[in-house]
Design goal:
By secondary structure, the chain is mainly beta. The protein has 2 domains: 93 residues, Immunoglobulins (Immunoglobulin-like, Sandwich), CATH 2.60.40.10; 315 residues, Neuraminidase. It is built from 1 helix and 34 strands. It has a 4-stranded antiparallel β-sheet with strand order 1-3-6-5, with no helix packed on it. The N terminus is likely disordered.
Length: 446
């Protein structure tokens, strides 16, 4: 009957308060209320990070400030012995979902209280946030020394933007382009002497590929490497420097081709462009587009890497556009023959934005999660023969895209909307707010 006594006391308080003025209201007794578990907070971050200590705190409503004794347990990993509201949990060093159970004991001298709640806790890789703003960042490209070059919109609707470089996570970024109307796909040269990007000086200009010194430049100091001709070309873009040397890869079409094909150029020696794919009518690759492409591993100052990787599309930017999967092509040497036939490396149309590790062993890419509007990051070994050999790197409600390996292969940089609450900001209409660059560590390789 003790609970009835507590209820009667609570009713008495309400009746007394209702019969008194605001000036004379006096609460004699607060009654007896059991402490309530309201949640579990991970101060280290959400989701929980695999294989490292995570600082947990149980959230409790305790209106009578009763002394509490807390008991913690977990389905996997290790928990520090604790009888307080906080504990340190080291989950297993693997992605997965585990449970943490928290129990409370308390007494008010006449009644004992016990509450227990079990929480599923998702364990993920470790993330480092590089930028934090409402502006939309895209096209990240790591430098050899570990910085990140990227593009950022000034205006999401018109596409106006600039290139930036972040030297450390959440540092003040350094602007690299000035007085350009738009900038996309900034890419650092391996020796950190130049930055290239696709851009327009004015709104009515055609797209050109530009070179700037490492510290950046305006439209007068930048060097125009190649320019689109609106009468002959519909597309020019996606420049990518090789891991080593000054070899710049890009996609371009012409009135004779109609669909973007791949070219590269040694900008250090300013040699003539080299076509990677055949444009001869009647060949298997004539009516297909190949972009965006990235270099394979290897290469040196005087020789480009021996291969490139690229998605392919049939009827690019036309009705009936169809993704054809991911392709690898050998890089023709100076004067060497170009490929005239194609066969998909992985004939999976869901693979997008592939990047090749500098050691040549792995491919990282974005892939839309089935039945959702968000993408995740995956890795495939270079010698894979099917998508079934891929390992998933990111998951959850956030949209992750534009993955790029660091030169040493230990970090994957990507763009994500996993703002402070792990992707809950989502995408709002035409304006993608809270989209930032992240790096992921402690991922599993295939």
């Amino acid at each position: 009957m003790k609970w009835l006594h507590g209820l009667g006391a609570a009713v008495l308080v309400l009746v007394t308060a209702a019969g008194c003025s605001e000036k004379t209201k006096v609460v004699q007794d607060t009654g007896s209320y059991a402490p309530i578990i309201t949640g579990l907070h991970n101060a280290t971050g959400a989701p929980a990070v695999r294989g490292i200590p995570n600082d947990l705190e149980v959230l409790v409503t305790n209106v009578n400030n009763l002394p509490l004794t807390v008991h913690w347990s977990a389905s996997a990993g290790t928990l520090t012995d604790s009888t307080g509201l906080t504990a340190v949990w080291t989950p297993p060093d693997a992605i997965g979902t585990h449970t943490v159970t928290v129990s409370l004991e308390a007494s008010d001298g006449t009644a004992n209280f016990f509450k227990s709640t079990t929480y599923p806790v998702y364990v993920e890789n470790e993330y480092t946030r590089w930028t934090k703003s409402d502006a939309v960042q895209f096209d990240p490209a790591p430098t050899a020394s570990g910085d990140v070059v990227y593009a950022e919109f000034r205006n999401n609707v018109t596409g106006e933007g600039d290139a930036f470089r972040a030297n450390d996570p959440l540092s003040v970024p350094e602007q690299l382009s000035f007085n350009f109307f738009s900038v996309t796909s900034p890419t650092p040269r391996g020796d950190e002497q130049q930055v290239a990007f696709a851009g327009r000086r004015r709104n009515n200009d055609s797209t050109s590929i530009w070179l700037t010194p490492w510290g950046g430049a305006d439209t007068l100091a930048a060097t125009r490497l190649t320019q689109a001709n609106n009468q002959l070309q519909r597309f020019l873009g996606h420049p990518r420097f090789a891991w080593n040397g000054g070899f710049l890869l890009y996609a371009s079409d012409s009135a004779l081709v109609n669909d973007p094909k791949l070219w590269y150029r040694d900008v250090a020696a300013m040699l003539a462009p080299v076509r990677i794919l055949s444009t001869q009518a009647g060949t298997a690759i004539h009516f297909n587009s190949y972009l965006p492409a990235n270099w394979g591993g290897g290469g040196a100052i005087n020789t480009p890497p021996d291969s490139v990787i690229t998605p392919s599309h049939f009827l690019f930017r036309r009705v009936g556009q169809t993704a054809r999967g991911v392709f690898k092509f050998s890089t023709p040497g100076f004067g060497g023959a170009v490929p005239t036939t194609d066969a998909a490396w992985i004939a999976d149309s869901t693979i997008a934005e592939p990047d090749w590790s500098s050691d040549g062993n792995n491919i990282v890419f974005a892939r839309r999660a089935p039945g959702t509007n968000h993408r995740d990051i995956w890795i495939l070994p270079t010698n894979a023969t099917s998508f079934s050999q891929a390992v998933q790197v990111t998951r959850g409600p956030a949209d992750d895209s534009h993955p790029r390996f660091s030169k040493d292969g230990t970090v994957i940089y990507f763009v994500s909307n996993r703002q402070d609450f792990y992707g809950l900001n989502g995408i709002f209409g035409i304006e993608r707010r809270g989209t930032n660059i992240w790096s992921v560590r402690r991922f599993d390789l295939p």
